[in-house]
Amino acid sequence: MACVSCRKQKRKCNKALPACALCERMNRHCDYSDASPAPTSEEFNALSMKVIELESRLNGNHSMISPPTTYRTPSSTAISAPDSLGAGGPSYNHPQDYAWQGLQNKFPAIAVLDKETFKDGGYGYLISQYQGYLKYPYIAFAAKDVLEHLGDGNSVTAIANEYFATVHLWMPIVSQKRLMVDMRNPHWEAGPDFALLLLCMKLIISRPPDSIESYQTLIYVSAKRFIAMAEASGTVSLFVLQAGLLITWYEYGQAIYPAAWMSAGWCVRYGNLLGINGHSETLELLGRPSTWTELEERRRTWWGVLITDKIVSIGSQGHILTNQEPNADTPLPVNDSAWEQGELSLAVQRLVSNPLSDAVEPFPRLCQASILVGKVLNHHHGTPIPSDVLKFGLANQLYIEISILARKLNEEAENTQDFLSLTAPLSLTYSTLCVLCEEYSCPAGSITSSPEAAEMQIKAIDGLKTVAGSIVAFADRISLATQNPQDLDRLSPIIMECMYTAAANYAWLVRESGDESYQIALDSLRHCLRKFGTRWRNAAEYLRILEAKEFTYAVGSAAS
Length: 560
Known about the structure:
It is found in: Nucleus. Helices cover 62% and strands 0% of the residues. It is an all-alpha fold.
């Protein structure tokens, strides 16, 4: 009889006494008892997986060894042998798909299928039970790669600190105070949604290596896979929405399309599901906030959703209009300092209807700029305006309103010691002006041959020239403020769109007039995009598009 160790490892045993040769060489106890050791949990799980795999292989091979029908018709396949009922194609699953087999989804479908019955029928207890349902059997297996990305406690703290020192400055949607307090609490049990948020924090602060594409990085693949599993399991959590926003910003900043476009839409839908969009008829799946800080965090996260959806759409001008736009009584985010400290007494609350001249901090300014983006997109793509005169008049009013915000932001930029904090709202304001003017600057567009239309075209072209000049000065100032490579980490990817638009206009002006000043401006913008492209690859993509435009213009000029 072979010893227990050799039987377990399926090794050849020489059965020597008092110890076999292998055990003696390994300096371990040699046991010749008859009792078989009880299988460990790891062995049992491995055996179960093997059984599932073998059954899947057999089911898949069954269809291959069955004699095929010469001509398969609906009538011939309607009745099949008892042993082939429900048989389809091969059902073998790759080992990495086992995590999906362990998913559990306890989300009450009635909450979406019939909201009124759910609310009126007293099913709210389901939500109260569901809100604590954050830990699933799949987490230990599915999050293995996530835990490898996050590392130990010191690594997690370093990730959070870097995130709040960089990305948080232009997209402050996660409460730093709440997060740090929870992480320091020894009795706080973090769920998988929190691990997902930390993973996406690390994703957004990372720079993809030059040797691989942005969508091929392991951390991006893990984040996309993990958030898909959270969705499939019915997870309802503010952390998941915040993680989805960070994924979307990574995709937008690294020019991963159409993923960025689709992810932005997902955030809108998920925010509606959570009930944080401010509509009274939505379900409050998250429950009522326990603190003012938590209420403000939800409000900021929804503003982040609205901003992200517009910015991702602004380049293509394919924004899908919805009824999600804030109204005049919608509160803007309060000042960051009060929220971060959790001091309600220091909070300065403004509404959407407040004048743009009122002093607010950078994130509320970004919200105001996004509101103007929505107005311009609705002006261009919303309900058709019957009269050109009326349409041009509304366009002029929009131009004046956006220009007021641009001047106010420039005044604040001159008086602040942290210019980079205002670059996101200022760049979005410039982009909005460009989107408004471009619609009326090209004769091949919607402009008619009326005198009013001709006058509007001249105004639009002059407006583009004025905005382009402001963008050149804006880009040069950013370049001066980012002398160190680490400074680029504080830049938002939002700023690239306006620089590209201005550069494209200058490339057209160089072709039309050959003015050397236009060429100098174009070269300056190209230099800035090349510099910022080391942090956000959408800048490099804009450069490639710009070079293609210039080549097309050069070929066209030579041919003519």
